[in-house]
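Re: [ENG-882] Designed sequences occasionally contain unexpected residues at chain ends

Forwarding the minimal case from QA. Structure tokens:
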């Protein structure tokens, strides 16, 4: 497969990412990172035992699994259609493997507490898996694994919200029915990036204090470009 054809396939794969895929598929809650890796490793080990894979990657127990990247919401369309939370990992040979690369990339898709698919790269440097993983990392679509450790949930009583600190801002975990936040249009899964012009990304737990501000009006910008307004009675 030529590099140009692989890049074309990657562009097609991008059609399965959130904006479009959400219209035809209902994603489950974002997986806990530790659980994600457990499910992923089990699925990868099972795939390694497949005779077709063993012909390319012998000695199943010789390969250690590495997770340099976190996951993204999207999907994989090679040999089927597999929407879910996608990550690119690596298999590394613990001891030399004759006539084989010591590091091999793989794609795994997990959702609803189950592995949807595993695709292990071929030996070619321009294989679909290798090029796709390289491009997703370079484009910043796959976060580094170190960012996947979940921050503790924070309560924003004034808005009736439970949030979680993310690099992009405040991730809405829950919104009290009928509360100020829900009335303004906030819902679980949304990310608040600015409050009255204040950027929330990078300030950690302090974002809860910004959202608790007692000013009469809060202009909230979200990661999808929406602006929501919370007005408090004076």
């Amino acid at each position: 497969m030529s590099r140009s054809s692989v890049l074309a396939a990657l562009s097609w794969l991008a059609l399965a990412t959130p904006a479009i895929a959400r219209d035809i598929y209902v994603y489950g809650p974002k997986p806990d990172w530790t659980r994600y890796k457990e499910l992923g490793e089990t699925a990868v080990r099972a795939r390694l035992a497949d005779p077709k894979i063993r012909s390319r990657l012998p000695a199943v127990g010789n390969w250690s699994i590495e997770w340099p990247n976190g996951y993204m919401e999207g999907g994989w369309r090679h040999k089927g259609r597999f929407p879910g939370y996608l990550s690119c990992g690596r298999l590394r040979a613990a001891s030399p493997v004759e006539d084989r690369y010591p590091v091999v990339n793989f794609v795994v898709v997990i959702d609803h507490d189950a592995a949807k698919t595993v695709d292990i790269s071929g030996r070619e440097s321009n294989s679909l898996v290798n090029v796709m993983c390289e491009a997703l990392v370079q484009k910043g679509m796959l976060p580094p694994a170190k960012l996947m450790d979940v921050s503790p949930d924070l309560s924003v009583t004034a808005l009736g919200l439970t949030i979680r600190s993310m690099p992009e801002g405040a991730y809405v975990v829950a919104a009290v029915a009928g509360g100020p936040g829900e009335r303004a249009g906030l819902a679980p899964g949304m990310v608040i990036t600015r409050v009255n012009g204040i950027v929330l990304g990078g300030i950690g737990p302090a974002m809860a204090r910004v959202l608790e501000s007692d000013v009469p009006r809060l202009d909230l910008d979200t990661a999808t470009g929406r602006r929501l307004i919370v007005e408090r009675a004076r």
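QA comment: On inspection the terminal residues look reasonable. The first strand starts at residue 63 and ends at 66. Proposing we downgrade this to a documentation issue.
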